[in-house]
Structures are given as structure tokens and as C-alpha cells.
Specification:
By secondary structure, the protein is an alpha+beta fold. The protein has helices at residues 12-16, 18-28, 38-41, 65-77, 130-138, 156-162, 169-172, 175-178, 206-210, 244-256, 269-279, 299-315, 327-338, 340-347, 362-375, 402-421, 440-443, 446-459; strands at residues 34-35, 58-60, 82-85, 102-105, 112-116, 121-125, 142-143, 179-185, 191-195, 219-226, 228-229, 234-241, 263-268, 289-296, 320-323, 349-352, 355-356, 379-385, 390-391, 393-397. The protein has four domains: 3-108, 2-Layer Sandwich (Uridine Diphospho-n-acetylenolpyruvylglucosamine Reductase, domain 2), CATH 3.30.43.10; 112-229, 2-Layer Sandwich (Uridine Diphospho-n-acetylenolpyruvylglucosamine Reductase, domain 3), CATH 3.30.465.10; 234-341, Alpha-Beta Plaits, CATH 3.30.70; 348-439, Alpha-Beta Plaits, CATH 3.30.70.2740. 50% of the residues are buried. Bound molecules: flavin-adenine dinucleotide. Flavin-adenine dinucleotide binds at residues 47-48, 83-91, 94-95, 106, 126, 148-150, 154-155, 157-159, 161-162, 164-166, 214-215, 219-220, 341-342, 429-430, 466.
Amino acid sequence: MSEAIRFLAPRQDVLSRRAAIVADLADLLPIECLVQDARGLAPFETDAFVSYRRVPLAVALPETTAQVAAVLKYCHRFNVPVVPRGAGTSLSGGAIPQEDAVVLCLSKMARILELDYANRTATLQAGVTNLRISEAAAIDGFFYAPDPSSQLACTIGGNIGMNSGGAHCLKYGVTTNNLLGVKMVLVDGTVIELGGKHLDAAGYDLLGLVCGSEGQLGVVTEATVRLIAKPEGARPVLFGFDTCEQAGACVTDIIASGIIPVAIEFMDKPAIEICEAFAKAGYPLDVGALLIVEVEGSEAEMDAVLDSIVEIAGRHAVKTVRQCQSPTEAALIWKGRKSAFGATGRIADYICMDGTVPLGKLSHVLNRTAEIVESYGLRVANVFHAGDGNMHPLILFNANDPEDAARAEAAGNDILKLCVDVGGCLTGEHGVGIEKRDLMRHQYSAIDLAQQMAVRAAFDEKWLLNPSKVFPLDGRT
Ligand SMILES: Cc1cc2nc3c(=O)[nH]c(=O)nc-3n(C[C@H](O)[C@H](O)[C@H](O)COP(=O)(O)OP(=O)(O)OC[C@H]3O[C@@H](n4cnc5c(N)ncnc54)[C@H](O)[C@@H]3O)c2cc1C
């Protein structure tokens, strides 16, 4: 078993009381809200990180905040670990259960509670999927900005857990910038509310702390998020370059010029070929790197901003500039980009890294990434949110070959360390989970980590909520 997917030793006392715990949970929940048989538990054994599986003790599928509170109160009293879960699309192993844990899955809490245009907010139960928010508000001319590529499936609760981002976050920010309030159940069953429909809150920014806390500070049952009015128009434009260096330098210069497009997405040659073969989006195949730059506003505004961007791209020997001519073409361009992970999965097994670097280091990190992956005898495709400096090298390997898998993991670790070493960070949007837990020591000093763990323990003294994630297993205070 890979080092990366170790768990804390299961609590034997909990395992030995499984039948009694399941019987007690059955008293707290309607019969259809508790999964305990092997077949029913199977879909909850893993998430999107690896095909690694572990059967949890039971799965609770509550329908109300009161039921969430009852389950947490019980588990807290009897020292049963709890793994909160949305749709299980985490790419860092954040939702993988452990065998002594009850999975608390919010998928049945999927009602849109309110669309409040006067305050430009939507209030939702935690199991509402990301895309449904924008779909619900679209008829009134509004949308929810953070758009993970998994938005058809992933939930707002999971987005909050991971502080998720997406292609269109360059202009509007990631989840934390669009989250206004939550209803959350603490580990002992206490229900609290943080934030609201107002812009800021008095006192400590606990809402900011909860966003990205990977299910370790409490279980979010409701969220209030910001709605944004749809722009008059939006236009993605393709810029093809001979080399990744040229494309990377162009991104840096666009941002340095003060222009903030809605999105600047980057694909290297392997990624272009993989996505084009899948989506037939019309990406140029004779270039070494491609930028998808989207601008929005009135026609005149888009023309003016695009003129400036084309001028900057010209300074970096841009080879192809293709403006899309219709909404259908725009949708295809985005389909190609947003299907990148799935399309890659068609040709090889892969692990998706998620480091963030200062924009000025993009070209350097891309070059070093290629060298690192090659030194392990593997291949890489890069497709990522370049405007945010959020890189996603997809390292291709053969999952049936344990040595190949170990090499891919080692290459991934080297790349993430590189991101930290150039002044960046271990994660841009996928969270730490299990995957980057041990690398936290590379990012933080022992004192920094101890401070974070002290905060975590202030919410959950017994370390029952998602206990094997985020922090090195042997480093807990
Ligand atoms: C094909 C693909 C593409 C992706 N693209 C993107 C992308 O573009 N951008 C991006 O940011 N991510 C992306 N992801 C990763 C993933 O979709 C996000 O991390 C997403 O936010 C997870 O949501 P989920 O509902 O699946 O949560 P889960 O995977 O179930 O859980 C994620 C974390 O949140 C916690 N959690 C879940 N629900 C709650 C709750 N109600 N209260 C407290 N904690 C909770 C869990 O304990 C876990 O730590 C992608 C994944 C896939 C498979």
C-alpha cells in the first residue's frame, strides 16, 4: 500500500461495537437514511483520488440539520470518527472513509432554499450541486461564479470543504470569495451560524476559517452564496504559441498590464491533443501551447480588451489567434477544457497535481515539471488555470504497475515541493486531503503546523472529524 494512503490506526473499540453503533444510528435516522449493508456501502468506499477502497462502518444520509446534529452528538459521545461527504469527487482523498468511521453524506439535503435577488444571494442546502445554483438563477439573469470542472456532480458543501475554484475564478474569486454564510453543526451536535447576507462579520473571520477546512471543523448543512448578474456578453479566444515559455510569459504580461480577463486557461501540446481528440473543439494542433482567454462585457468592451490582449500576445510571437464566432463554438471550447481530466482518463491512468506558483515563475515551473517527470520515465500533460498560477500537471502512468505508480507519486511530490520552493503553495483548489498531508511539513514549520492543529483541536478536541486528513499522521498535538 502506498505511503500516501495510510490512515490513523482504526479504533478497535469502535470496530468491535459496530453492530451496536449501527443499531443506535437506526434509532436516530429514518430507515432509508442509513446504509449498513456491503452493497450499499460500496459507492462510499473511495473518492476521485485513487482507486483505493476502505469500507466505512456505516453511511448516514440525513435529510435535516437536526438529523446531522443527532448523528454528530451520538458519535461524539461514543468517540466514533465521522467523515463528512458531498459527492465524493475530491481529487486529494478528502472524502475517502476509514473503516472505523461513519460517513455523513449530505447528498439528500439538496434543496435550493432561496434565491434572493434584492440581496444577490442564494441560500442552499449543502448537498445542492454546484451547477444547479447557476441553472436555477439563469432564468433571472444571474449565476454562481466558482465553476469546478466537476460542477455537474460536486456539492456546495464539498466546494466549501475544499475552497474549490474553477476556470472562471480569475475575475470572480474562488469559493471563499463568494461564500457569505453557513449553518454548520459542530462535532458535539451544536448548531451554529456564521456570516449571513451581509458583506463582512464582526469579530474573527470564522467563515473564512471554515472554508477550506476539509470537513474537520464542522459539518455544513446550509450555505448562503453570492449571485452575480450575467454579463452582456462573453467571448473565449484561443491563442496558440510555439512554446510553453511564450504562452507563460504572455500570461504574466496580461496580468501585469492590469487587465483581468474572466479566465486564462493553459494547455500544453499533450493536453491540446487529448482534449481535441475527445471534444472536437477546434483547438489548433500545430502549436506547442494554447491559452483560452475569456473576456466579457458589451461588444465594444470585449473588442477593446481583446485588442490589448492581442497586442500583448503579439509581443510573445503568438502563432494563432482565433475568436469564437457563436455561443455553440464557445460552449465547445469550454467543453474541451472542462473535460480535460475525463479525456485524459481515456488514454492513461493519471494523477492530477494541484500546486500554485507566483505568475512570474510559471515558465520556470513548467520547464522543471517536464524535466522532473521525464527523469522518472513518465509523461505529463499540463492543463490549468494559468491566470491564477494554479497548475495541474497530469502525470500519466500505469496503475497496474506498482513501481510505475510509486514513480508517479514521487514525481508528483517533487513537483509540489518545487511549487513551494518558488514561493507558491501545495494546493490551489483541490485541498490537502490525504495526498498532500505529509508534504505540509515542506510548506510549514513545526510551529506553524502546531498553530493550525491547535485551531483544529479547538473545534474538535477528540479529533473525530475527518481525522486522517490534512496534517501528517504522526504530527498531531
Ligand atoms: C473530473 C474532476 C474535475 C474537477 N475539477 C475541479 C476544478 O476545476 N476545481 C476544483 O476546485 N476542484 C475540482 N475537482 C475536485 C472536486 O470536485 C472538488 O474538490 C469538489 O469541491 C468536491 O466536492 P464534493 O461534493 O464531491 O465533496 P467530497 O469530495 O465529498 O468532499 C470534499 C471535502 O469536503 C468535505 N465536505 C464535504 N461536504 C461537506 C460538508 N457538508 N460540510 C463539511 N465538509 C464537507 C469532505 O469531508 C472532504 O474533505 C474535480 C474533480 C473531478 C473528479
